[in-house]
Amino acid sequence: MRMSPDPRRSGWLHVLQRERLSAGLEASRGAPWSDEAWLDRCLAKRGFGVFPMALDWEPGKGGRSRDILLWSVASRLLLIADAARQSGASVSESQLEVAQLRVLAASVGLFETLAELGDLESVKARRALCRDIESRLVARCPPTEHPLLDSNYHRFLVYTESRAVLLLAQACFEGTLDESLVAATLGESAVVRLGIVEAVQGLVLADGHLDTSERRLVRGLIGLGGFTKEEEASLELAELPSVDALAREIQTPTQRVLVLRVLIAASLVDRDRSPAEDAYVDELAEAFGISAQEVARLHLDAGAHMDARPDLSSSLSRSATFKRINRSTQRYLERLVKQNMRALVTEAREMGDLVQLLSKKAREPLTDDEQRRMEAQLKDVLRAIPALAIFAAPGGALLLPILARLLPFQLMPDAFLDQDQSV
Question: Is this prediction's pTM over 0.90?
Answer without folding.
Answer: no
